[in-house]
Each structure stands twice: as C-alpha cells, then as structure tokens.
Amino acid sequence: MAEPFSVRVDVRGYETDTQGHVNQAVYLQYAEHARWSLLRAAGIAQTDLLDKGVGPVALENTVRYRSELRAGDETTVSCAFVWGGGKTFRIEQAVTKADGTVAATFTSVGGLMDLKERRLVADPRECFRALASDPSLLGL
C-alpha cells in the first residue's frame, strides 16, 4: 500500500500554550491544513468546490494526543481518505515528529454539503472524482 499524502508543518512559537507545548486547537488546524493540501495536490481548489456549489463539512473529529509538540519541532501531517458507501467518508491522519514519534492521531468523519440545499450530497466520491485531476491521491 502506498504511503498516505503528507505535508510538512513546523511548530511556530505562537502556537504554544503556557506549558510550552502546542495548544490543542492548533492540532485541528494542522489536520485541516493537511486536508486542504491534499485536495490541492489532487487538483481541487476551494474555488472549484464553490463553483460546483459544494463544500466539505466536518461532522466528527476524534483526536488522540500521544506526545507533546514544542516550538521549533518539525512534523509531517498525513492525510488519507477512507471511502465507504453513502454520504459520508472518514479521514485518517497523524502528526509525526521528525524522529518518527507520533504526536497525535485524528479520525474524522466528513461529507460534502450542497450549499444551496444545505444537505449532504448523495455520493461525495463522484463529486471529488469529477473535480480532481489526480483522484488517486484521494483513494479514488
């Protein structure tokens, strides 16, 4: 199996809390950054989604913090779509330090919302496949 898509993220000092480690909300921003980076790498810009009248929505996020991150740490944030049937999909992610230590893992449930109808589209796979220049990066 191929390695999941990943993007490098360096921890910035202003992302840390009073204990000197990354604030919990920042981990979610890292995950979101990796998801948008994956979509762009697959050839899908945010404007492409808006032009089609859809937008990704997060329905559930589970974060497991495993090792603290500090300012200056170099990390990679992975991102892999896991497809099933229906209107939703899972996204599996990990934040990994340069030494290989996993700092956090994410399991998310998402969907694509029809922005006019305000409902999830019936088949998000087809929508992503139609927009992507490289759908294989999305597991399609």
Account of the protein in words:
By secondary structure, the protein is of the alpha+beta class. The chain has a single domain (5-138), classed as Roll (Thiol Ester Dehydrase, Chain A). Helices cover 24% and strands 38% of the residues. The protein has helices at 24-41, 46-52, 124-131, and strands at residues 5-10, 54-65, 74-83, 88-97, 102-114, 119-120. Strands 1, 2, 3, 4, 5 and 6 form a 6-stranded antiparallel β-sheet that branches. The longest helix is centred in the first third of the chain and has 18 residues, at 24-41. The radius of gyration is 16 Å and the shape is elongated. The model has no long low-confidence stretch (mean pLDDT 96).
Helix amount: 10-25%
Number of strands: 6
Strand content: 35-45%
Query: What would CATH call the architecture?
Result: Roll
For the record, give the distance between the C-alpha atoms at the N and C termini, rounded to a whole number. 14 Å
Provide the structure class. Answer: alpha+beta
The description of the largest β-sheet is: 6 strands, antiparallel
Instruction: Please tell me how large the radius of gyration is.
Output: 16 Å
Query: Given the structure, what is the number of helices?
Result: 3
User: What is the CATH class name?
Assistant: Alpha Beta
Low-confidence stretches: none
**What is the assembly state of the chains in this entry?**
single chain
Arithmetic mean pLDDT: 96
Topology pattern, helix = H, strand = E? EHHEEEEEH
Number of domains: 1
Q: Kindly identify the CATH topology.
A: Thiol Ester Dehydrase, Chain A
Shape: elongated
CATH superfamily: Hotdog Thioesterase
